[in-house]
Amino acid sequence: EGRVEVYHDGKWGTICDDQWDDRDAEVVCRQLGLSGTPKALSWAHYGQGSGPILLDEVQCSGNELSLDQCKKSDWGQQNCDHIEDAGVSCDPFTGTEVLLCQSDAVKGTVRLAGGRSPGKGRVEVYYNGDWGTVCDDGWTDLGAQVVCRQL
C-alpha cells in the first residue's frame, strides 16, 4: 500500500486522483504482481509526493495488465496539486472464505448487529457461550458471501 508513482521519460511522478477508483487500483495491484482486494485511496492518503504529476483522469476498466493500457490524460497533462495524489492498498490477505468455513466459531450461529436495516451490520458469531465480533484482517467479499449464505 502507498502513494502510486510512475516512471516516464526518465523521471518518477505521481498520479492525480481525478476519476481514481477501485478499478484503477486493481490494475496497479496486478501490475505490481500483488493479489488481494484492491482499494483506491485519494487526497494524498499516503502523503503528498514531490516532483511532477505525470498522470490525470485515469479510467481503467479493471481488466488491463498495466496503467499504460488504461484511458488517461496525456503524460504530464493535468490540473492537480499533490494534495490529490492517488494511493492504492492491495490487501494481501486472501482465503477468508476457507477460514470462516473451517472455524468452529461459525457453525450456523451468526448474526448481524448494529445495522440500520435488515441484512446489514457488524458480523457476530456465537462461540463457547458468548457472542463476539469477527476481526476484519483478511476480510473480503468472499467472507461476506459466506455469512450471507448462512443467514
Automatic annotation (TrEMBL):
Q: Which GO terms describe its cellular component?
A: membrane
Q: Locate the SRCR domain: which residues?
A: 1-91, 110-151
Q: Which PROSITE patterns match?
A: SRCR_2
Q: Matching SMART domains, A to Z?
A: SR
- Which residues are listed as membrane-spanning? none
Q: What is this protein called?
A: NETR protein
- Pfam families reported in the protein's UniProt record: SRCR
Provide the alphabetized UniProt keywords: Disulfide bond, Glycoprotein, Repeat, Signal
Disulfide-bonded cysteines: 16-80, 29-90, 60-70
Note the InterPro entries from the entry: SRCR, SRCR-like_dom_sf
Q: Could you tell me the superkingdom of the organism this chain comes from?
A: Eukaryota
